[in-house]
Design a protein that fits this description.
Rossmann fold, 8 helices, 2 domains, alpha/beta
Length: about 210
């Protein structure tokens, strides 16, 4: 079997469908919420959590059994039912129509997997076992969460700001790189962790000075 190609998708305003209304479907929906996708759930029944999202107009709901026509304009599909016939039908239709599909607990029929993710602000680290062991992926995520704490979010925001300032004020590519390297090699990450914010500006200024700026 060929290897999966890792990538991040921009789902804002894209049509994402979830077939099924149980607990697994609810988990899939909740992970989609922050993506800006247009989420539709197809199921005669919904969990209380999905009903609450429906009442808040965060999802659309088609209250009946799945039909192929439901997927006509879909960009991405999750199938989270316990009906093997429905799962097969969804998988075949999506393959024919070249729609990205994830069939829960059936990796062979999936054209994509959702990784376990560590998030700290703009930092995201995705962990996948290619569908072989979601439990192992979750365990690795927990280990990484201990390593990459909230201070990484703060540090990345700072690096982004400095990078934008350098692009506007320093024309020399090499000098820009050297300044960013100085900041990365400094103890700023440790200072964020210790909440010693007064020292962080000094470290940035030191990096500029060392590079002659």
């Amino acid at each position: 079997m060929a290897e999966f190609y890792p990538l991040y998708l921009r789902l804002e305003k894209e049509s994402c469908l979830v077939v099924g209304g149980g607990n697994v479907a609810e988990r899939k929906v909740k992970k989609l919420l922050n993506s800006g996708a247009i989420i539709t759930v197809i199921s005669p029944r919904l969990t209380l959590g999905l009903l609450e999202l429906k009442e808040k107009a965060q999802i659309r709901h088609i209250a009946r059994e799945y039909k192929n026509q439901d997927l006509k304009d879909a960009f991405l599909v999750f199938c989270a039912t316990d009906n093997k016939n429905v799962n097969q039908q969804v998988a075949e239709y999506c393959k024919d129509q070249k729609i990205l599909v994830n069939i829960v607990d059936d990796p062979v029929k999936c054209s994509f997997f959702v990784p376990a993710v560590v998030r700290q602000g703009p930092l995201s680290i995705a962990i996948s076992t290619s569908g072989r062991s979601p439990m192992m992926a979750a365990r690795i995520r927990e280990q990484l969460e201990d390593t990459y704490g909230p201070e990484y979010a703060d540090f990345l925001e700072l690096l982004g700001q400095v990078r934008m300032e350098l692009l506007q004020s320093v024309s020399d590519d090499q000098k820009r790189r050297e300044i960013l390297e100085q900041i990365l090699q400094s103890d700023i990450l440790k200072l964020y962790k210790e909440k010693r914010y007064d020292k962080i500006k000094e470290r940035v200024q030191d990096a500029y000075r060392r590079c002659g700026c």
